[in-house]
Sequence to fold (262 residues):
Amino acid sequence: MKFLSGAIHLLIAAFLTALTQVGGVLYIICLWLFRKKGWKKYAYFLGIYLLFTFVFIPLLAPSVGRVRIENSETIRPRNYFYMLTNRNYVTPELNEALKQVSKELQIHYPNLELAYLDANFPFIDGFPLLPHLSHNDGKKIDLCFFYQKNDSLTNKKPSWSGYGAYVAPNQNEWNQTIACKNKGHWQYDFTKYITFGTWNAELNLAQQPTKELLKNILKHPKTSKVFIEPHLKDRLGVQHAKLRFHGCQAVRHDDHIHLQVQ
Ligand SMILES: [Zn+2]
Fold:
């Protein structure tokens, strides 16, 4: 019985580590520190986790070269999950680039907010933010497209997580997903399972602001690579040496933009 509960606690700790980086360690420490407190140890863990997430980690991360993304009127996480799980850390340079890009965008689109998805964890270069193996150094972030309903622009997005609701290729457009899956890359569209709910099915890609966002990102001097799906590159008519195809070993990028900086 003891062995079984130990194994379950370890599994929970591993899950929390993959989800939040620091959660697993804090969980084990709290189980040990408050081992005589019965069920209350879980409440202590929750309180301590929140204290670390919203107070201590933002103070500690800059000492290892990362900062929590500064939310503002122009930039926000897709939802609170990304803040609650510490998936919102970047290098100061990327933070600055995001600020500039989102402010430029607001000149033409004052009501649009730049929504971000997974960025990086606060600590340790090389520690991957699953399921993205490359989001491990503070220099990567995923950004939402912009959408419109009928003809009016909106900050709504078609899925809860921000992933997995695709702006799929039309019949006459190149279909990279089919090409990759035919080559055996079964994982290429696995993000369809991590929408955690889709709605606003009537939303369409807002091409002009999404194109402007892409262009602003591409002209920023810190930008090193940007990934979107090939058919969207064609549809939006954006060509740039830094705008690349990510490869079939990754996942499809017609639900978000991947940005990485130097
Ligand atoms: Zn990414």
